[in-house]
Specification:
With 215 residues, this protein is of the alpha/beta class. 33% of the residues lie in helices and 25% in strands. The protein has a 7-stranded mixed beta sheet with strand order 3-2-1-4-5-7-6.
Length: 215
């Protein structure tokens, strides 16, 4: 599909496609679905194609929400768009399914406050967004709701699984795919080697999708 986007909005790539396949395989509930860090709105639109009755998409970036709005119009879909930190703007709301492709790329700099890098920079451990997501996820899910989160093994999916389980959710990796480094990871490959996050000369990463279920 064609997705319009501003230059500073994350382009749907291998992680987006992996999350879409996992969503189709998981039979995501067809009620109210939340797309966290929506970017172009690609995941939100895919949820509607898979039968969701209502989709809420949240992002901190005005450019992302504009892109998502344009894509919803382009594809004749209706999405509720919410701007702000998902830890704040979604208080007291519950969803049947939560889908997330958050920033997870480790890097030497702290998370970016603006510009293109905000779409992927996630601090030295790659968990600046994943950890807050793990904390709020149990409160975002309706009983028997499910969540699907895509991330890289460079940002410790075992920690994601452990923290979700510690908060009472069932959690496990349900999909994996190895893909070559894109421009961002190639640029910081030397730093990743020094940080011990990749082997010398390694230029690929494994992407995973973690499923969490609220009993």
């Amino acid at each position: 599909m064609i997705y319009l986007r501003s230059p500073d909005v994350y382009r749907p790539q291998a992680d987006t496609a992996l999350l879409m396949r996992a969503m189709a395989a998981a039979a995501v509930p067809c009620g109210h679905v939340l797309d966290v860090c929506t970017g172009t709105g690609a995941i939100a639109l895919d949820a509607l194609r898979n039968g969701a009755k209502h989709v809420t998409a949240v992002d901190i970036s005005r450019s992302a929400l504009l892109s998502a709005w344009l894509n919803s119009r382009l594809h004749g879909a209706r999405i509720e768009l919410v701007r702000g930190e998902f830890t704040r703007v979604l208080r007291h709301r519950r969803f049947d399914a939560v889908l997330a492709n958050p920033p997870y790329v480790p890097g030497p700099e702290p998370t970016a406050r603006g510009g293109r890098a905000r779409a992927w920079n996630a601090g030295p451990a790659g968990r600046a967004v994943l950890d807050p997501l793990c904390r709020v996820l149990p409160n975002l899910l309706n009983p028997h709701g499910i969540a699907l989160i895509v991330q890289s093994t460079l940002s410790a999916p075992d920690i994601t699984v452990h923290r979700l389980r510690a908060d009472g959710l069932k959690a496990a990796v349900v999909a994996r795919e190895t893909t070559g480094f894109g421009p961002v990871l190639r640029e910081r490959a030397a730093w990743l080697e020094r940080a011990g996050l990749i082997e010398p000369g390694q230029r690929d990463e494994e992407l995973v999708v973690i499923r969490a279920d609220r009993p």
